[in-house]
Amino acid sequence: MGRMTTGPVTEERPLRRDAARNRELILRTAAELFAEQGLEAGYDEIAKRAGIGVGTVYRRFPERSELVQALFESRIEEMVAIAEEAADQPDPWEGLTMFLERAIERQVADRGLKEVMVQTIAEGDHLTVGRERLGPIIDGLIERAQAAGTLRPDVEATDIGMNLMLMSSMTMPEQPELWRRYLALLLDGLRAAPGQKPLPLAAPADEAMHALMCNLHGRRA
Amino acid sequence: MGRMTTGPVTEERPLRRDAARNRELILRTAAELFAEQGLEAGYDEIAKRAGIGVGTVYRRFPERSELVQALFESRIEEMVAIAEEAADQPDPWEGLTMFLERAIERQVADRGLKEVMVQTIAEGDHLTVGRERLGPIIDGLIERAQAAGTLRPDVEATDIGMNLMLMSSMTMPEQPELWRRYLALLLDGLRAAPGQKPLPLAAPADEAMHALMCNLHGRRA
DNA sequence: GATAAAACGGAGCAGGACTTCCGATTCGCT
DNA sequence: AGCGAATCGGAAGTCCTGCTCCGTTTTATC
Q1: Which residue of A24, A157, A179, B213 has the lowest C-beta tally within 10 Å?
Q2: Ramachandran angles phi, psi of A194, nearest 5°
Q3: Model's pTM, two decimal places?
Q4: Are residues A185 and B184, on separate chains, in Cβ contact within 8 Å?
Q5: What pLDDT is recorded for position A213?
């Protein structure tokens, strides 16, 4: 019982030098691939593009979720920062608009990020923490714009989320910025106007929204 | 050289009774499955659900496109009929609205139909003929509504097509009618209003729109 | 430099989807 | 009923994707 001085259960040894180098290589490569192809890009392809063996990738990240978490924690922070900056905007409508624009920009540039934003992952997930901080900020953006009378009063946070995701799917090789055209259209629809009829049906619940996102991306469950 | 009386190349013999029965069975089953799962539902599953062998399905429809064509020709006709009826509406805005509503209704109810409407199939395809008749009618709906001053002047046919497809993806088990909420939002964006800024960027070309649809549905190429 | 532990790489296995093939069956005709 | 031809069914072959396993190589330590 000579080494009771060390910490509790997890005795973390530093990675060997070659392993550490490969870990970074995997992260960089996976970031690229996930951005292009989404979160289910094959480990085989990550390995090939990184110039290492598949086994190495599986050894370092036995669960795909670990890889995703390692890659996207900071990206989600970035989204939160965007929302906060939007909330600081003096004009409420400006704020909402800016948030949508920047958020879509990011998600269009990175398909993996788009998918991560939609996921509801198991408890204890670090990414979930980040995503949950986003909710209240967006609520604030919406309420403020409604109080100012510029945003129609019957839209809710899930409506915004839903449309944000839709717009983020509006890209293609040619015309990568096409989403801006349809965001403009959406914003005109979101703006409060005199004789406007209220929207039919209720806004979807969070879970419903999640379910639809899965449908959209052809994902099961 | 005894039988030069019969027609040219294609000598069509009627199917045997059991074969004809199975053909119908396959069509009915495939219609169900395609509606639920889209056009790439497995032949295996069609066979299992129909209670027949896979070989039978492959023998009758060696090319999936034949099956698709047999199933959707009339559905596309139906879409054309909807558009024509919409064009007969006295009020132009009513007409456009009605077209969108009914078209989305159909496409939401049948995922296969949605996918067929997006495809650009090889020349000589009967479905293409139907789809191509749709274009001018929709153009007419749009121009008429713009001439009346109700539809904003800077939207084009591809914009409508694009959004039609988007809306058709807005369903889920719970709240199957949710798309109506977002169609209402879209329509408010499409309506011409006094100080409205023109939409940024150009409307997508037909091919670009097609490319994006493939992206959306996760299809390759 | 020698040794043991850690890490590497990619061949190969498992599971699933699509398609073919052929012995058994059903049908139409005499 | 009896026969040949058309059709059936599903086992088996092929291909593709995800993952594991183990002989070889690299690293840290003495």
Answers
A1: A24
A2: -40, -85
A3: 0.91
A4: no
A5: 80
